[in-house]
Amino acid sequence: MRNKILSSGDTVEARCTRCKTVLNHTIVALVDGRIARVVCNTCRGEHNYHPPAAARKSAVAPGTAGVAKVAKPRALKKDPEAADRQEWIELCADIDAERGIAYSMTGKFRMNAFVRHLAFGLGIVRRVDIGKVEVLFQDGKKLLKTG
Ligand SMILES: [Zn+2]
Question: 111-127: per-residue pLDDT in tens?
Answer without folding.
Answer: 999 999 999 999 999 99
